[in-house]
Every structure is written in C-alpha cells, then in structure tokens.
Amino acid sequence: MVGPGVNTDCQIVSAFAPNVARWNITGLSRLEYNRGVGALANRANVSVDTVHNLAVWGSMGKVEVLDTSNCTIEGNPAREVIGDDEWLSKIFAKVGLKPQIPVPKP
Question: For the domain bounded by 29-94, which CATH number is listed?
C-alpha cells in the first residue's frame, strides 16, 4: 500500500483480511523515499536512478528513519560515497521527517 494513511490501511487489511499473512502486508512511504533518494543523489552529484536500497522505517509523518545501511550509490555503499557521517546523521536524517525542509544541496 502507498499514500497518506498507509499505516492505517495496513492495519485495516490485517484485521479484515485474515487469509492474507501479516508479513505480506507492507506500506510504502514513497514521498519520504523519493526525498531521501533525491538528497543522496544530489549530495553525490549522480542521477537518482543510481541510488538503490534506501529503507524508510517508522510511522509516516511522526517518527521515520531514512536507513542507508544497505543503500548503494552507483554500486558502492552510500556511506562511503557520501563520506560525511555528520551530514548523514544530522541533516539527511531529517529530510523525510520534515517536508518543509528543502532537500539539502551539496
């Protein structure tokens, strides 16, 4: 599922579709994902289609974490490509949480 209220939608499906295994119900916070991929690509000065495996954890609009643990940029670990843990933890981490914050420039 995707879109505003995705967590609620997933909860409804899990409650009213008992034949669907709970581990098969997932929600996608695409806005936060797109903002995160865009910020990483911008910082690395590459195209967004070279950023892969960024994960978004948490509740849409409340507590979200943009997880770069398995993220790659042009096939290399994102943390190595970005090379700035402070930027990743203090600035990038807020990109998905606050849509009013502009995507940071390199």
Answer: 3.90.110.10
User: Does pLDDT of 87 surpass 70?
Assistant: yes
Residue 81 has pLDDT above 90, yes or no: yes
Paired with 66 in beta bridges are 56
pLDDT at residue 27, rounded to an integer: 75
The overall average pLDDT reported for the chain is 82
Is the CA virtual torsion 71, 77, 80, 81 positive or negative? negative
The number of C-alpha atoms within 13 Å of 52 and in the hemisphere containing its C-beta is 6
**Secondary structure of the chain in HEC code, one letter for each residue:** CECCCHHHHHHHHHHHCCCCCHHHCCCECHHHHHHHHHHHHHHHCCCHHHEECCEEEEECCCEEEEECCCCEECCEEHHHHHCCHHHHHHHHHHCCCCCCCCCCCC
